[in-house]
Specification:
By secondary structure, this protein is α/β, with parallel strands linked by helices. The protein folds into 2 domains: 185 residues, Rossmann fold (3-Layer(aba) Sandwich); 225 residues, Rossmann fold (3-Layer(aba) Sandwich), CATH 3.40.50.10300. 33% of the residues lie in helices and 22% in strands. A hairpin with a 5-residue loop joins strand 10 and strand 11. It starts with 9 loop residues before the first strand and ends in a 7-residue tail after the last helix. It binds cytidine-5'-triphosphate. The site of cytidine-5'-triphosphate has 16 residues, from helix 12 and strand 17. One of its GO terms (cellular component) is phosphopantothenoylcysteine decarboxylase complex.
């Protein structure tokens, strides 16, 4: 990667097959406006949806399509093409190209470049929701992430095929912002080397926990994990080294974040302990307050005529309270949420004191607010100084605001924490 933000940066953009391919045209515009050089590779599938001419016009560069093009090879060999960029981006990344990347297949120019490159790779998947949820795709993605490939999206919403769910390519501005960050630019044009949270570390909990009853059943809640995942992403965008400890969700792992997957509250606590020390901990998970006291190793059977079983519950560890306990390993800043169904400020203020955390984001999760499991959030930011109502906004907007407050607080606190 180039050393300074003033040097032009270069990406190799691989456009694979998918109806969302039209969105990359707008992404190219965003990137060109910021001075990023974009060289496009169009797969045969991609060419069904966008033309080489549109890519050429917007990128103002040659578009490569053919592995065995004599002209291209004599002008620039495919190995060189794969290494000239600072970043390789695959958008949209179809289920097919992800599978080929996982297997190391290289039967066209795009897959050959992906196998030959020595540069970081960012993929933006887009496909039908069933294809996205298929175990094959999810396992391929997990393998690619383990190999260091970054993933952005997909997003949830209505799909061109008429179905609804995860599978939509991220919007062009978000994709461009993710690319700029990977290239070392902040989205406002500054260099991330001056990122406000560079050198800082963060721990974020997210999602629900699943408390096993027996090998096949569990107790759970409706948390989607959206708020916690967005916070992890926002902190990483400001340069923090982030560990996200997540219960089972349907969300993809955020790019640039180390995600640890757990199921129960006890597993979450132990993963959080392993992530310490950190400068800041944000507990956004909806941890089950209770677990089943005596989990059986055998499936509980339904006996003819017998009364239904009674589940005895036992209290789960309180992760936020544990992290907030005073002591040498305590993060400099401990932030929690207060999910309340009324009297948010009073209950949130009391919860802040009870849990020993520095800040609490109180939110109303009453039926009808759509907060729990939904995309929007309306929070009261509660600190020692009092409560402040933030305007209702997307969970991403809440995450961005919280990340800015964290950066300001840690910046003002001056000293680097123990986590460097
Ligand atoms: N929390 C936690 N571990 C638990 C329970 C909650 O870390 N076992 C954290 C949540 O991540 C959140 C905060 O504590 O940041 C408050 O969660 P909430 O569900 O509002 O409160 P509870 O402690 O569960 O109390 P109550 O359900 O009585 O309101």
């Amino acid at each position: 990667m180039s050393d300074t933000a003033s040097e032009p940066r270069r990406i190799l953009l691989i456009v694979s097959g998918g109806i969302a391919a039209y969105k990359v045209l707008e992404t190219i515009r965003h990137l060109r406006r910021r001075g990023v050089a974009v060289r496009c590779v169009l797969t045969a599938g991609g060419a069904q949806f966008v033309t080489p001419l549109s890519l050429h016009a917007l990128s103002e560069d040659k578009v490569y399509q053919d592995l065995f093009s004599l002209t291209d090879e004599s002008e620039m060999g495919h190995i060189e093409l794969s290494r000239q960029a600072d970043l390789v981006v695959v958008a949209p990344a179809s289920a097919d190209i992800l599978a080929k990347m996982t297997a190391g297949l290289c039967d066209d120019l795009a897959t050959t470049l992906l196998l030959a490159t020595d540069k970081p790779v960012l993929v933006a998947p887009a496909m039908n929701v069933r294809m996205w949820e298929h175990a094959a795709t999810q396992e391929n993605l997990a393998t690619l992430i383990r190999r260091g490939i970054s993933v952005i999206g997909p997003e949830e919403g209505p799909m061109a095929c008429g179905e609804y769910g995860y599978g939509r390519l991220v919007e062009p501005d978000r994709l461009a912002a993710a690319i700029l960050r990977r290239l070392g630019h902040d989205t406002d044009g500054t260099d991330t080397k001056q990122s406000v949270l560079a050198g800082r570390s963060a721990l974020v909990t997210s999602g629900p926990t699943h408390e096993p009853i027996d090998p096949v059943r569990y107790i759970a809640n409706r948390s989607s994990g959206r708020q916690g995942h967005a916070i992890a992403e926002a902190l990483a965008a400001l340069g923090a080294r982030v560990t996200l400890v997540s219960g089972p969700t349907r969300l993809p792992d955020p790019a640039g974040v180390t995600t640890v997957h757990i199921e129960s509250a006890e597993e979450m606590l132990s993963a959080c302990r392993s992530a310490l020390p950190v400068d800041v901990a944000v507990c956004a998970a909806a941890v089950a307050d209770w677990k089943v006291a005596a989990r059986t190793g055998e499936k509980i059977k339904k006996e003819e005529g017998a009364a239904p079983p009674t589940l005895a519950l036992a209290e789960n560890p309180d992760i936020l309270k544990t992290l907030g306990q005073p002591g040498p390993g305590r993060p400099q800043l401990v932030v929690g949420f207060a999910a309340e169904t009324g009297d948010v400020v009073a209950r949130g203020t009391a919860k802040r004191a009870r849990k020993g955390c520095d800040w609490i984001l109180g939110n109303d999760v009453s039926e009808g607010t759509g907060t729990f499991g939904g995309a929007e959030n309306s929070v009261h930011f509660i600190t020692e100084a009092g409560a402040e109502a933030w305007p209702t906004g997307s969970k991403r907007a809440v995450a961005d605001e919280l990340a800015r407050r964290i950066a300001a607080h840690l910046g003002a606190a001056g000293e680097r924490g123990a986590a460097e």
